[in-house]
Amino acid sequence: MTRVGLMVTCINDALFPDTGKAVVTLLRRLGVDVEFPAAQTCCGQPMVNTGYFDEAVPLVRNHLDAFAGCDAIIAPSGSCAGSVRHQHGLVAERSGDPGLVRGVADGPPVYELSEYLVDVLGVTDVGAYFPHRVTYHPTCHSLRMLGVGDRPTRLLAAVRGLTLTELPGAAECCGFGGTFAVKNAETSIAMGSDKARHVRSTGAEVLVAGDNSCLMHVGGMLSRQRSGVRVMHLAEVLAQTEPVVSGSTRAADRRSVGSGVDTRSAELRAGEITR
Which of 32, 134, 243, 256 minimizes the number of CB atoms within 10 Å of its CB? Predict the structure, then answer.
């Protein structure tokens, strides 16, 4: 049996645990036996991006140990999946340790979530139901480093009840960029403001992306602007299913679904759900 490991990423583990739970829910619904190796830590991207390659070596070693025995690794983050696929080799080569170089080269393949769903499982309709108007932001690393292309939007387009609206300037960076937002705060804010303006222009209820770091940045601006737009990770949308009703509630549910309104719709409009 294929052993799949979930690389949940630091930001999801610390701030957005619902995303990791959604990935497990979604994959198990699709028949994937997914595990969570408890020994996993940071992938080392913050160190590499700021030039501290030597400090990233122990994290690369730990990654190999934590996911040893896995046939594949899935990450709900284009940023972290890109780090493992493209930066771990650089760290290993710089370390001068042939064993580490071999370990990285022979390690299990790492997939961003949409890649695994579309390319490995061969599905775009995952049985999701989400009756809301949605727009999608393709994050930089997923778009440029991994080349996920239209996989996320194909998955969203197959969600029942979901209306997908095109985001103007979608390929433009949101301005987060990890430490970039700290070192170049004014530029980061300007870029994020542009992205938030484009999101509002779509009339969407929900902004969806595959990286919570970007959603945190843009979502913070949308919240401060009192836009009424919520942010959700792609996995959380794909994990949603149509409510199962019975007996006396069935007729009321049919009226609710028929009018495009359900409990979650009302909560989103009222601003009771925060991400």
Answer: 243
